[in-house]
Amino acid sequence: MRCKLTITGRSFAVRGAFTIARGTRSRAEVVEVRLDDGQARGRGECVPYRRYGESVEGVIATIESLRGTLEAGLGREELAERLPAGAARNAVDCALWDLECKRAGRRIWEFRDLSEPEPVTTAFTISLGTPEEMRAAARAAAGRPLLKLKFGGAGDVERARAVREAAPDARLIADANESWSMNDYRAFVPALAALGVKAIEQPFPAGEDGALAGLDRPIPVVADESCHNRASLAGLAGRYDMINIKLDKAGGLTEALALKHAAREAGFGIMIGCMLGSSLAMAPALLLAGDADLVDLDGPLLLAEDRANPLTFDGGRILPPPAALWG
């Protein structure tokens, strides 16, 4: 069935600022895809990520190049053959899923072999800052059960200690965003283990993570920048204990579902993560989150504004998406 394609860039203000090892952001720049057949409309959102050579303009141009075939009824399997994994394919793939649901008048789990999503606990991110800044942020979020700490190298143990003092009961995840050296790893990990840190995301730069194969990993290490889709898995064995599945890296829900299954079969733990996007970007990922070991879908909590019909956050939990939002 033919449909009309609309591609829109949108900017959401961040609540305060969002800082990681690679820099600070005050806005979340996203691309929304809408597919409308005159009776039903499907939507998807992606977050172009400069780390992977993406931009809003480039993603829009990539999707625009498929306008004719998309409007003629391009399916998800053919989409995966036409576009590589990444943000552009994610937005289109999720819009196709949503359009299928809206046409059927049923939720995605009602006609696909998927479990109905239930409320899940999500991490809440504490941006990189001084120990004092991160202590204050953790104190404000101390009622949340799972905190994710953005790290940047020197001073990370002091940052973790400050957060632990402010939030003594929270589970902690550390995210180095490729910023550590080998010396950092050896110096930091014993102290972080003593502070109860449960996982460390991507300590070394992607491409330099072979060193993990020879290191003790008393804290599970999670592949983020090193893991995109199923093709990534073979190179992660023996180096990582878990993988972080993000729709924008995988190229949509279709590949993310397959990646999750393959990763489980290969013995990896599963984390479901996100880029800095709105509730529309988070909603499809909730189909992956029910039995994940860790969930980090707090993007909307870090924004000063959100979509209409947004996700509901109840304390540290996310509720399933309303049909008016997605799926």
Describe the fold and architecture.
It contains twelve helices and 14 strands. Strands 5-6-7-8-9-10-11-12 form an eight-stranded parallel β-sheet. It has a three-stranded antiparallel β-sheet with strand order 1-2-3. The model has no long low-confidence stretch (mean pLDDT 96).
Taking pLDDT < 50 over at least 5 consecutive residues as the criterion, the unreliable ranges are none
Number of domains: 2
Please give the largest β-sheet.
8 strands, parallel
Q: Quick one: how many beta strands?
A: 14
Secondary structure tally, helices: 12
Tell me, rounded to a whole number, the average pLDDT: 96
- CATH class of the largest domain reads Alpha Beta
How much helix, percentage-wise, in residues? 25-40%
CATH architectural label of the largest domain: Alpha-Beta Barrel
Query: Termini separation (Å)?
Result: 19 Å
What is the fourth-level CATH superfamily of the largest domain?
A: Enolase-like C-terminal domain
* Category from helices, strands and their pairing: alpha/beta
User: What is the beta-strand fraction?
Assistant: 15-25%
Order of the strands making up the biggest sheet: 5-6-7-8-9-10-11-12
Radius of gyration equals 19 Å
